[in-house]
Structures are given as structure tokens and as C-alpha cells.
Amino acid sequence: MDFANGTQAVGQPLPRTEDSRLLRGEGRYTDDINLPGQAHAYILRSAHAHGIIRHIELDAALTRPGVLAVYTGADLRAAGYGTLPCNVTPKSHDGSPLLMPENPALAIDRVRYRGHPVAAVIAETVAQARDAAEAIGVDIEELPAVDTIEAAALDHGPLVWPDIPGNQCLDFHAGDHAAAEAAFAKATHVTRLRLFNNRLVIAPMEPRAALASYDISNGDRDGRFTLHIGCQGTFAAKNTLAKKVLKVPMEQVRVRTFDVGGSFGMKSSIYPEYVVILHGARELGRPIKWCDERSDSFVSDQHGRDSVVEAALALDEAGNFLAIRADSLANMGAFLSTVGPNMQTNNIFKNMPGVYKTPVIAVSTKCLFTNTTPIGAYRGAGRPEANYYMERLVDLAARETGRDPIELRRLNLVLGAAMPYTSASGQAYDSGDFPAVLDKCLALADWHGFTARQAASRAKGMLRGRGISAYLEATAPAGKEMGGVRFEDDGTISLTTGTQNYGQGHASAFAQVLSDQLGLPFDDIRLRQGDSDELLAGGGTGGSRSIMASGAAILSVSAEVKKKARHLAADKLETAVEDIQFDAGQLRVAGTDRGISLMELAQSPEGRAGALDAAQVIDTPPSSYPNGVHVCELEIDPETGATRLDRYIVVDDFGTIVNPMLVAGQVHGAVTQGIGQALMEHAIYDGQGQLLSGSFMDYAMPRADQIPTIVFDDHPVPTTTNPLGVKGCGEAGTSGALPAVMNAVVDALSEFGILHMDMPATPEKIWRAINNTGN
How far is Cα 592 from Cα 580, in angstroms, rounded to an integer? Predict the structure, then answer.
């Protein structure tokens, strides 16, 4: 596909280039990768949430057919491996460090959650490994378990870690607490809410899998590890494995990722199974494969969310926001995941002000251990929580003060004339037109036509509610990124980036950027990702950073290719470099009709020798601030509590949009996940650390027939923080959806005097709330 006559590839709604291959069943996921002579691993997990390991009996397992080895935590410790790391280090308000207990790949001395890996069997087949695992005898002295935040915070309750009092690993404070106290003291009105942020099972279509090998072709023990996994960035995974777990030089580790069937943050971490099979591959001299089963993934994969907050909003007599305060208890699970503590601390703080000019913010979070699966990143990673707290407070404040919820928001919006604007959490908003986005969404939603639709619902015996939310996200944390361009002998162009596609459509979007920069045929560009050996740097995909980070890297490497091309063209055309002009893939001598195309140069002997190839590592641009407004309308059957979403409208400011089709897909998916959390998803424990919602029979996921047509439009205000003017879009839909849906639920129930309901608003919860009012 060529874009001629001045048409730009950027901005075109091109399909994902990988779709046809995936729809034909030609995807290559980790479970599709096999190596000659591979053996298989099976992980024995604890059936208890908390207990002392008195003895592990392995003899019977070792004699089972096909068994090659059985490992325990003692074996991995003896091999000298490090434990699974937490890569973030927020501090408590008194300056004390985050408490980070060691997290070995296999349990040592104690088990601390249901599903905690205890032992690993390596055998010729999966069936043989599973059979041998059943023969392992594990003597565990069961201890009291704590599986909720509230229970973890109790005085004199059970301790997950005996040397961590009160189960608290962090007491985080941010913002101006003294100024907040003063603002609340002088406020005309204070709105208060206790909000629960339900724990979620992160359930991508592809369960985790891994394949490890160890190359000792150099004849000694200093061989090379290779790990095939589905992950969000192979360069970061390689760094963590080499430096913190395997404790070997980086050149001795290679991580490869092919197709990834979803992640949503969960596959950004290093997991115990990876360490086990890397060890097995080195010890046995054979590739080792492990594939998770869905039943295990409910307890072995990191969970998302899980916090409770006491939030308050202070207003003056005119309705201006004076301050917001949020005091949270956040569940970390039994161990700290790779980025777990950051989501309920720094990310909440940065994003709490949202689109509003609230002058003071104060956030505190106590991070607590429980005997549950560790909490990790999940789509939005703190940003949906912050927006949910703020938008529920604003809606309730409007009800309590008798104000129109739209006008209360409008009164407090940061105006475009104020840009650049520094929020109370220190975020530098460079661009945006929040009032225009609000007005556009209200018009698309036919906000003022709601009364007629509500009357029609009532005529059917239904309750109808509408909810609105305005959100803003701080996306794309700073780091390093690379872009590489190589001209292949077959006429194609290889583009290498350090980010990782797992459903976003990088192959199309990044090719669109490169096509415009170098005037190359879109269809001839091939994206290369997922091999740490090909990367000079790479922060991976997460935090809605990919288009900003990789986009900037592509622009940087394109400039280097142009520079090389001008020099080579000057030699070919026998003129000075200064006389060569580059335009849309053509290099011409200024003032003449003499020229040569970039692709002709690439196919010249010099081009085939790599004269035009280039790779660049850049410092990624600062954060961008996507923002938008969501409106949700729904019906509730008061007889059953069942909710039916009827209308959903989104208007977003994502700056320059590279590919509208891909952006719409990201919005639709993120909104759907927000709907899931708001109305149905909840990972529930029984009080003793056993997961009750441990399968899709018990854990509700949103289905296609439960999701309305999502109307998406954009109001782009290009950012100035990166050369493309793009803002991250991958997680924004979740941030807007939680409060929009819950505000609509509460609006529908308001005639019963119900002013708040915690997520998930299940039919049973709604039915009980209605019937408990006595109306």
C-alpha cells in the first residue's frame, strides 16, 4: 500500500497487519514453540493459604516413570539464584524503606498463599510430571490466614510475615497534608465516601507458558540461557533475570517473545515457573517447557486492584473544589510483585487531580500483606482507581449540594487558557481542551434527551440511570527506547522496536509512522519485536507508552537513515551532500531533475552492505495526558436487580491519532474491562485464604451480549511532549468506565435513597439494596 499524492499514512484507519494470520490460526504463541528433546515441568502448589513446611517427601515422585528431576526451594537456593524482585521502591512518609521480604521461586519454610509453588517435577511428558507431583508428600502445619485488607489491618491479627508488624510494608504519604487539613476546616461543604476497589482475576485469552534452554556449546558451565515467554518487553525481562535472579552477565541471557494473547499488565512480571525451568534446563542439559492451566492461573497469575479508600472532597460556597484527600488500605498479597506497590501509591497520587483545578491534594496509602495471590499491574494500574475516587466524589457532592453534576464539573475544569498547567500532584499538563471534550460528549450522548428515555423505561417498569465521568491520565513513564531500520535484500524493510505488541496493532501503527518519515511502501515494512538479542534498549509495553516511546524512536532513527541516504546519494549523483534534498522517499539534487529513490539506494551494492541501516537509542519523551469524557445510560430491573447497558458514549483527546481503527479498538476493550469490574468481576476469598471464585464457573466475565454499542469520537489536541503529538490510549477506557457505570447505577437507584454502591454492582447486590430500603 503506497500513500501517494501527499496522502499521509498516519491518520489512516488501517487494519492490523497480523489479523489475517491470526484468524487463519497461524499465530505463534509460546505453547506453539517446541525444541528437540524438550522435557516438561509441572508445579505443585500449596493447597493451604498459610502454614509451616515441616517436610517434603520426594522419594515416591522420583521413582515415577519418566521423571528426570524434582526440585524444591532448597535446591534453587543452593544453586545461588536470587529471589523474584520488586523493581519499585516508594518510601514511607518517615523516610523508611519499603519492606520487601524475599520471594523465592519455590517456597522455603512457609507457604503464604493458596497456589504458592512448593515443588517442581521435570519429566518426559506433562502427564508423567503431573502424576509424579501427586506422589509428593508435603507436611504443612497450617496457620491462621488473613485474606482481606480489613483483616490484615486488625491489631493482634495473624501475621503473614512474623517480622513485619501489622502486615504493613509501606505507609506512603504524598501531597500537602497540612494544607489539606486547613482547606477542609474552612470548607462550606465536605463530601465523604468509603470506596471499595474490588480484586480482579487478570484473564488474558492465552495462559502463561514458558520454554527454557541452556546452551553449553562453549564447553563450560558459563553457558547461555534462552527463555521463550509471552511478556510485555524482552529487554526488561532479560535485565531482571540476568541481574537479579540468575546473577549472570546480561550477554548470557536471551529472552524471546512471539505472539502474545493478551496481558493487561499481568505478563510484565518475572514468575516463579520461569526460574524453575531455567534451572532445570541448565541442570539437565535439555529444554524444559511449562504451560499453565486455567485452573492454576486463577491463583498463580498476579491479581489486580484490591484496595479500600476513605476519600473526601472539600468545596467552598460557590462549588469550587478546595482539596481532595484519599486515605487507602492497599492489598499487596503475600509478596510484592514487580511493580505492585507503585500502583496504589505514586500512581494514585499523580492521577488524583484529573481534569480539575483542585489546589490541594493529600494521599496516604498503607500497603498490607495478606495470604493471597500477589497483586500486580492491571490495565490502568492506579489511574482507574484515582479517577473512580474523584468522579464518585464529584457526583455525590453535586447531589448533596443540589448542584447540576455537569455544571459542577464545568466550574472546576482546568481551562485551555491555563495550559501549561501544573496540577496539585506536580503533573505538567501541556495541552488539552477539557470543556470542549465535555460539550462534544454531551452532544453525542443527547444528554438533554434523557428525560424522555427515562420515562419510556419507567413505562416498562424499569429504572433508568445515567452517569458521566471526566478523566485524565498521566501516561508513559520515562525511560529508554530504541528504533532500528534495516533494508533487506528482498526489498522489505525491517523495523525494530523495544516495545512489545500483545494485541495493540504495533505492526500497523509503527509502519505508518515509518512510511511517512521515509516515504517507504507501507506493505513492505516488517516489524521486528520480541528478541532481546536484537535490542539495544527497550522499556517494553506498559503505561500506555508504546506509541510515544517507539514513535519518538522511529522518528530519531528515520533522521539517521535520511542522513546516511543523503551522503550515499551525493556519492551516486556526484554532488555535494548539502545539495541533496529528501522528500517522500526521493533524493534529488536541488534545482535539477536528477535524483534517486531511497529504495533504489537500498538495493545498490552499498545499500545491500548495510550503508543505510541504522539503530538509535533515545531517552523517551515526558508523560502525556490523555483525557476524555464518558457517558453511560443503563436500565435496572427492580424485580431482579439485573442491569442492562443501553448507551455508551466516549469522547477522548489522544492528541495526534496514528490509526483511528486501532485506537477505537483499544477504547472498546478498555471500556469493556471497566464494565466488567463495575458490574460483575470479583475475586473473593472465603476468610481462610481459599479462593471461592476460582474458575469461570464462579468468576463472572463480561460477555459480548452484555456490552452495548460503544460510540467513540475524538477531540484531538496534540501534545507538545513528543514529536508526533500523540497521547497514550491503551488504558484510558478503563479509567473513564468505572465511574461512568457506577454513577449511572447510583442515579438509577437514587429514587430509593441509595447514594452509593460498591463495585461490583451485581444483580443480587442491587436487589438487596432496593429491598432493604423498604420502598
Answer: 10
What's phi and psi for 88, nearest 5 deg?
-120, 150
CB atoms within 10 A of CB 721: 21
Cβ distance 50 to 71 under 8 Å? no
Indicate the pTM of the whole model.
Answer: 0.95
How confident is the prediction for the chain on average, in pLDDT? 96
As a whole-number percent, the residues of the chain with pLDDT over 70 amount to: 98
Dihedral, CA of residue 756, residue 761, residue 763 and residue 764, to nearest 10: -70
CATH 3.30.365.10 in the chain, residues? 19-28+478-619, 430-475+623-775
- Residue 477 pLDDT level (bands cut at 50, 70, 90): confident
Mean pLDDT on 16-41 = 95
Please report, as a single letter, which amino acid is at residue 662.
L
With H, G, I as helix, E, B as strand and everything else as coil, classify residue 325.
strand
- Distance separating alpha carbons of residues 564 and 71, to the nearest angstrom: 54
CATH of segment(s) 430-475+623-775: 3.30.365.10
Best CA proximity match to 213, nearest among 321, 287, 324 = 287
The domain made up of 37-146+205-300 has a fold known as Aldehyde Oxidoreductase; domain 3 (3.90.1170)
CATH numeric code, 19-28+478-619: 3.30.365.10
Q: Tell me what percent of the residues of the chain surpass a pLDDT of 90.
A: 95
> For residues 52 and 46, what is the distance between their CA atoms, to the nearest angstrom?
11
